[in-house]
Amino acid sequence: MGLSAGDWQALWLTARLAATVTALLLVLGTPLAWWLARSRSLWKGPVAALVALPLVLPPTVIGFYLLLAMGPQGPLGHLATLSGLAPLAFSFPGLVLASLVYSLPFTVQPLQAAFEGIGERPLEAAATLRASPLDAFLTVALPLARSGYLTAAVLTFAHTVGEFGVVLMIGGNIPGVTGVQPTYVQKFRFFSQLRGERRTADPAELLFSRQQNGAGRGRSGLYVPAGWLEG
After folding, report:
1. What is the spatial distance between Cα 123 and Cα 131, in angstroms, rounded to a whole number?
2. Which of 97, 103, 92, 108 has its CA nearest to residue 47?
3. What is the mean pLDDT of residues 109-130?
4. I need a surface site. Which of 81, 141, 199, 224 has the fewest CB within 10 A?
């Protein structure tokens, strides 16, 4: 048993999306997490609530409003048109942008907790040695927060790999463009249920099933084990 061309394509696209989103969020989320950890502003509470919003809103709701924003009449879609860029909806860049929003708390919150755990003493010691705020951040805060960065990277990557609702709303399931592994698996499950299959398919079986011993290829273009199309 092995992977089909569609399996490899979906896996590669999923890994590419997750790696891109993780790298971007680690860079973009660092100043936000640092500000949330150090600031005493009245805006800290509302900003923290906005960051955590993807944790409480259903993915399809987030995806719907992001789709409106990225559509031809939406602000992001209109801006892309004025800039001469390709439409964001149902494209890989749009998928990246949506995933940045949906996975934001999985990056910012671990980093914020790591920065808060540093305390004041190390930074005060750096200041007494005439280190600038930037030097203190780069040479003291970042090394001490490395465990937070590892946690944030793992959580963000895993969350991006497994997201389905936002991906489906923004990207659909275009092979080679937006057809990531979660939509590929859900398509397989829907097809098997449509054929009247009663048993619950194991995710590993969905990934690695191939045409064998007289098995047919369904209309969805996915390999279906022998007997699934009968009856």
Report:
1. 9
2. 108
3. 92
4. 199
